[in-house]
Amino acid sequence: MAVALKHVLTDAEFTKLRDDMVKHGIRARGVRDPLVLEAMAAVPRQDFLPQELREFAYDDTPLPIAAGQTISQPYIVAFMIEAALLKGGEQVLEIGTGSGYAAAVLSQIARDVYTVERIGQLAEKAAATLEEYGYSNVHVRHGDGTRGWQAHAPYDAIIVAAGGPAIPESLTAQLKIGGRLVIPVGDGERAQELVRITRVSDTEFRREELADVRFVPLIGDEGWQPDNVRPGPAQRRPMPRREEAPEKAIAQAAEPFGAIDATELSPLLARIGEADLVLIGEATHGTSEFYRMRASITRALIERRGFNFVAIEGDWPDAARIDHYVRHRDAKPSEWTAFARFPTWMWRNHEVRDFVDWLHKLNSARRAENRVAFHGLDLYSMHDSIRFILQYLDEVDPETAAVARERYGCLTPWQKDPASYGHAALTGTFQTCEAQVVAALKDLMAKRNAYADKDGERFLDASQNAQLVVNAERYYRTMYYGSRASWNLRDQHMFDTLKTLLKHHRPGAKGVVWAHNSHVGNAGATEMAGRGEFNIGALCRKQFGRNCYLIGFGTDRGTVAAASDWGGALEIKTVRPSQKQSYERLMHESETPRFMFGLRDRTAPHVRALFRPRLERAIGVIYRPDSELSSHYFEAVLPDQFDEYIWFDETQAVSPLKAHEIEGYPDTYPFGL
To answer: How is residue 286 annotated by DSSP?
Structure first.
């Protein structure tokens, strides 16, 4: 029998794969430094891999090498080198040589690269590979990386490819004045923060938190001890024993349902009780069943419990366009099309349109003051918000409008790509606009009484947009590296907006929040808390207690609307069956295709069975199935995270709207043409 020969990739094929990796796996994910992109494109990653793994060289994933170690994924290599703020020609120290790949990339930018590897076998192999392929400005040493390499100090930059419990003093001491140390720090594998330490003087250092990461332990005298490496929380806490059979307890407690529109919601409403806030999540941003069930619950809350506003994880001005439509407001509608920026499918879909049309019809039979409102909580719409503020002020106070226009002019160069503003401000190539936008907000709020007396609803829009711009300016300065600071700023803004809405719609205000599970579930019950992150759910729990009710969703498999990269095209992707050690797998093994149950009764068998921490899946607007375990799972304790859980074993993607599908609607229809 003939045996098929395995195709061996040619140099040209490797080059094509490498170029695609740089374009789609690195640049598309936010790394923009041309020196870094050129270096990543110049170094053949396959040269640093065992022969049997070379075909996977340009997959964006870590790969195994000798001594039980891994070669870092290409994106994280580029990410960390960009964070070091190299300009070219520097002297750089790398801790954790591994295969030598990252050192080779650094060598394309730096004058000299000194790299220290703890494992002798790896140090010897990396040195031979680097010499073989001509990286003559890379110098390899076998030793304790936590001690650095004093003989060649001081360094312009130090990059550490392993996570330590604290920052080694030997490394900070070997920085030049103005030098940068980039290092993961944290007490476990699943709770590390990538930080940048800049040496300001002989005794002063500035610390910046950049991103949540996962690295192997930094072992050495000033790191973890070899026999005392602390595992991440997921490994540290015991998993449930099989004899507990939690899937059976789930099946017994489950309240099955069939068609969403025919689901009996009285038991759920009874559990919600007198709560004035109901936060309804979603395990993905692109699943039809989650959207339709959320809408069904919301309709019941409006009709049977008197809820009077819906607040979504969407931008304020876009939601205001919807609000104008559903509340039949007399004011002139905004001119832009709602939810026209990436990810358009998140709110521009049939499922949301059906609810919006229902709300429009419901409100048509109500007096203006009793109509249910539709608001946005998010802060991405910086420039749409500026445009609304200026239009509003042009009408009510032209003199203040002129001053505001001058203040907001600082942000004008970044209208099409506000993330670039964050990059420019962070790297020092452009001044920040913080003072100007704060001053514009103060100007507006100083005249709140006069403006609100003329039109309270429009002043709410203007003041909320002004606050949004202030927070968005800060957000874009912190979000570039995706640190906990940007997450917390965004969720604090959404929570503050929610409180503003409760105050505005009182007396008797009752609101429904639509957002991702990761925003509405209590962050204190997840590994987010270990990273210092909070969310809307945690803030609501703290302030409102049992007067808020948190509902989460989950699924095992199906399809989802998502992109591969931020700003990328919509794709209908296949959702992989859930991981074995996850809550989703337990729900699937209950063999109940659709169900819901409450989680507040701590004595219930199914609640007790779910109290041990497990993995939980979260898919946002980006879904990367190939790296799903590392990029889409986090650890949680479900009964502490949610008050209610709703399960769909198999789900389908949302149906995005196309322009021609809404032809014939009036010009005021919020989704535009």
So the answer is: S
- The structure tokens 């030098």 sit at 179
Domains within the chain, CATH numbers bracketed: 65-235 (3.40.50.150), 244-283+517-654 (3.40.1660.10)
What is the predicted pLDDT for the residue at 570? 94
Asked whether residue 221 carries a pLDDT value surpassing 50, the answer given is yes
> Does the CA dihedral 172-173-174-176 come out positive or negative?
positive
Give 279's contacts (C-beta < 8 A, 6+ positions apart).
512, 513, 515, 520, 536, 537, 540, 548, 549, 550, 551
Residue whose tokens read 């803004």:
493
User: What is the rounded distance in angstroms from the CA atom of residue 86 to the CA atom of residue 532?
Assistant: 29
Residue 361 burial (CB < 10 Å; 0-12/13-18/19+)? exposed
CA dist 284 and 560 (Å) reads 8
Spell out the long-range contacts of 447-452 with Cβ–Cβ below 8 A and sequence spacing 24 or more: 447/397, 447/400, 451/396, 451/397
Tell how strand 155-160 and strand 175-186 pair up: parallel
Alpha helices, DSSP H, located in 315-417: 316-326, 350-364, 382-396, 398-408
CA dihedral 222, 223, 228, 230 (to 10 degrees): 150
**Lookup result for tokens 């954790």:** 96
Question: Is the per-residue pLDDT at 136 higher than 90?
Answer: yes
pLDDT tens, position by position, 26-67 = 887 778 899 999 999 999 999 999 888 888 888 877 888 888
Average pLDDT over residues 294-303: 98
Q: What is the mean pLDDT of residues 114-122?
A: 95
Closest by CA to 376, choosing from 464, 314, 295, is 314
* DSSP type of residue 9: P
Nearest to 311, CA basis, from 53, 146, 48, 519: 519
- Does the pLDDT value for residue 352 go beyond 60? yes
Cβ atoms of residues 606 and 249 within 8 Å: yes
| Choice among 172-181, 475-484, 592-601 with the minimum mean pLDDT | 475-484
Mean pLDDT of 634-649: 95
Q: Which phi-psi region, left, alpha or beta, contains residue 428 (left: φ > 0; alpha: ψ -120 to 50)?
A: left
| Helix pair 434-446, 456-478: axis angle to 10 deg | 160
Mean pLDDT of all residues in 174-197:
86
Instruction: Identify which of 101, 2, 110 has the alpha carbon closest to the alpha carbon of residue 46.
Output: 101
List, by residue number, the catalytic residues: 72
Q: Give the whole-angstrom CA distance, residue 33 versus residue 27.
A: 9
> Contact, 441 vs 470, CB < 8 A?
yes
Distances (CA, A) of 73 to 102, 457, 484: 10, 50, 22
Phi-psi region of 226 (alpha: psi -120 to 50; beta: other; left: phi over 0): alpha
Position 169 scores a pLDDT of 95
pLDDT of 108: 97
Which pTM value belongs to this model?
Answer: 0.66
Query: Is 433 exposed, middle or buried (CB count within 10 Å of its CB: 0-12, 13-18, 19+)?
Result: buried
567 Rama class: left (phi>0) / alpha (psi -120 to 50) / beta: left
Distance CA 484, CA 472 (A): 15
CA dihedral 177, 179, 183, 185 (to 10 degrees): 30
Has residue 14 got a pLDDT over 70? yes
Are 136 and 149 in contact by the 8 Å Cβ rule? The answer is no
Q: What per-residue confidence (pLDDT) applies to 44?
A: 95
SS3 label, residue 235: helix
Say if strands 373-378 and 255-256 run parallel, antiparallel, or are unpaired. unpaired
User: What gap in Å lies between CA 120 and CA 117, rounded to an integer?
Assistant: 7
Cβ contact 283:265 at 8 Å = no
